[in-house]
Design goal:
heterodimer; A: 257 residues; alpha/beta; Rossmann fold; 6-stranded mixed beta sheet; 4-stranded antiparallel beta sheet; 40% helix; globular; B: 223 residues; mainly alpha; MetI-like fold; 80% helix; transmembrane (chain B); Putative glutamine transport system permease protein GlnP (chain B); amino-acid transport (chain B)
Chain lengths: 257, 223
């Protein structure tokens, strides 16, 4: 264990201990142990319904779990989590990008990005706008700031969603299948923005079906099968020399086409 | 007896100044009642979708009672029945406003519930994931979107309530229908006067429809 910690170089920013989650009689997450260190990019892969989205949604309390313990940046989440101070703190420090973008349709692109910094961090409009404009430029969408979300393409909307999450200056970014709802020609622009973010050293947990992207940006790949971590390791190991039979079978199915 | 009936335009127009005196009462009962009904509707509509059962039950009870009984019975109960309990008479105007308030409040509760529940779950999740509190998420994200979707139904309810006030002639409020009845009692021009009464209601409701259409169009920006 000491060896692992010296490798990662720091205390983990996220630590899950024996996390279990049930939806009624369905056991969705089984004894999940996972630690992510600062600056690490962890990509979570697995079949639909394997529990990979549920896993990252537990980290910012969008899903509650029944047993185990989650610690995020020193804040503790407990089973059957209520809306505690710690949860609020975690959500302030953890950004999330959703499959369906979930932009606020009644607000302009700029207001989508400035809302949380102003209401949660208490920034004034000038500072929030300045930061928003810088982030929108970074995701290459600054000329659309006055528009409303529905006037943008899917790829543009997802890049705004990324800027919106980054405006809170998060310590960790969660991505829940960020390209699954996009037309094929728009996937690249979103992955590019994420690639850049990874290069800048952002800690990221990414649930995706984009295996090429996973191999390229991941420091570590986690394969989830029926609610359990079946295999984890560097991308070369998981993709090229999987140790688990289930990983092999999953990869042969998704990499075939 | 004369079989060819002549519509008496002079009588029709002549009744208008007298009928117009009823308009302030009609408007006061309608919009006073609706304003209170809107507040009731927000409160009970939100209680109705509360995860806590003991908050939900009173809201459901209120909605079912006041949606399931006629507004005429409600105003008769308030005007004639309640004074027997509280021991002092209730002003007819107040009774009218109260009846519209509790009646429209029940319908508006359902409109509010439907509006809020129609907002996709992802909107709430996006707000919470950004660190907004549940209250902030509701105020800045859910409610503005829900309210826009509620506008057509609220307008509909407004028009229904305006017309409901016509029933309150039975408790003697000098609203539009009551004014008409009083006028007809001396002139007997029922056809002309009721036609004018109908036109005046139409003037009010069409104005409201038009205003709401403008509001809706404005609300479409950004949707």
């Amino acid at each position: 264990m000491n060896h692992d910690e010296s490798l990662s170089g720091a205390d983990p920013i996220v630590r899950l201990d024996k996390v279990n989650k049930h939806f009624g009689s369905l056991h969705v997450l089984k004894d999940i142990d996972l630690a992510v260190s600062s600056g690490e990019v962890v990509v979570i892969i697995g079949a639909s319904g394997s529990g990979k989205s549920t896993l990252i949604r537990c980290i910012n309390g969008l899903e509650e779990f029944q047993q185990g313990h989650i610690q995020v940046d020193g804040n503790d989440l407990v089973p059957h989590g209520k809306a505690t101070k710690a949860l609020q703190k975690i959500r302030t420090e953890v950004g999330m990008v959703f499959q369906q973008f979930n932009l606020f349709p009644h607000l302009s692109v700029l207001d989508n990005v400035t809302l949380a910094p102003m209401k949660v961090r208490g920034w004034n409009r000038v500072d929030a706008t300045e930061t928003a404009e810088r982030l929108l430029e970074r995701v290459d969408i600054s000329d659309q700031a006055a528009k409303y979300p529905t006037q943008l393409s899917g790829g543009q909307q997802q890049r705004v969603a990324l800027a919106r999450a980054l405006a809170m200056e998060p310590r960790l970014m969660l991505f829940d299948e960020p390209t699954s709802a996009l037309d094929p020609e728009m996937i690249g622009e979103v992955l590019d923005a994420m690639r850049e973010l990874a290069k800048e050293g952002m800690t990221m947990m990414i649930v995706t079906h984009e295996m090429g992207f996973a191999r390229e940006v991941a420091d570590r790949v986690v394969y989830i099968h029926q609610g359990e971590i079946a295999e984890e390791g560097p991308p070369e190991q998981v993709f090229d020399a999987p140790r688990n039979e289930r990983t092999r079978s999953f990869l042969s199915r998704v990499l075939k086409h | 007896m004369d079989v060819t009936f002549q519509f008496d335009w002079q009588a029709a127009f002549g009744s208008i100044p007298f009928l117009l005196k009823g308009i302030p009462y009609t408007l006061l009962i309608s919009f006073g009642g609706l304003a209170i009904g809107f507040l009731i509707g927000i409160l009970f509509g939100l209680l109705r979708i509360s995860p806590t059962a003991w908050l939900r039950v009173p809201a459901v009870t209120y909605i079912e009672i006041f949606r399931g009984t006629p507004v005429l019975v409600q105003v008769l109960f308030i005007f004639y029945g309640l004074p027997q309990i509280i021991g002092s008479p209730i002003n007819a105007l107040v009774a009218g406003i109260a009846a519209i308030a509790v009646n429209s409040g029940a319908y508006i509760s359902e409109i509010v519930r439907g509006g809020v529940q129609s907002i996709e779950r992802g909107q709430r999740e996006a707000g919470l994931s950004l660190g907004l509190s549940r209250r902030q998420t509701f105020r800045y994200i859910i409610w503005p979107q829900a309210f826009r979707r509620m506008i057509p139904s609220l307008g509909n309810q407004g028009i229904i309530s305006i017309k409901d006030t016509s029933l309150f002639s039975v408790i003697g409020v000098g609203e539009l229908v009551r004014q008409g009845q009083v006028y007809i009692a001396t002139t007997f021009n029922a056809l002309e006067v009721y036609l004018m009464v109908a036109m005046l209601y139409l003037a009010i409701t069409l104005t409201l429809s038009f205003a709401l259409r403008m509001l809706e169009r404005k609300g479409l920006v950004g949707q």
